[in-house]
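Teaching soon. Invent one.


***
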Amino acid sequence: MPLLLLLLSLQAASPAPEPLDVLLRREVAQVALAQVRRMDSQWNPAQRDCAGLVRFVFRAAYRRFQPQRLDSPLWRDDKGQPGDFADAETLLTHSFAPLGRDEATRESLRTGDLVAFRLERDSGPIFHLMLVVRPEDKAHAPTRVVYHPGDKGASVRTGVLQSLVTEAPLEWRPVPQNTAFLGFFRFKEWMR
């Protein structure tokens, strides 16, 4: 009987496996931040822009923790059909759900959520996405954004979300007063 009690106590003491969404979000953060240090050679250079970063880090996370999910495309194309490629506008429209634009929403963001902008230019609208990386222990590190500026040959950058709110040029501030700020978005599969 003592052996059975020992086994039961060991089983009770072992931590429960982490939920898949926690593992995926953690991997999204790690892969995104790794691109700041050095872009992965597996990331197709022709797809190195803000939407390409989102597609790359999500696929990497799923490849590690749920590879069978990649048997069908993660994204929806401009017709709403499964597709391997989606630009920033298409990702927002078909694969991500809006969360809101206010401070309360900003405070509730999780790793893998997006900050989205639409700037009007003479050549037409330009969409820009930034990935949110929120530390698991909010008391020890600020929430960051990770993004590719879209210029050919540019490196991936990161910054503190709160600094973006207070110090960026107005068109890049994620605040309700900024008409270029579309809001915060979450991958639809992670809304469940």
The chain has six helices and eight strands.
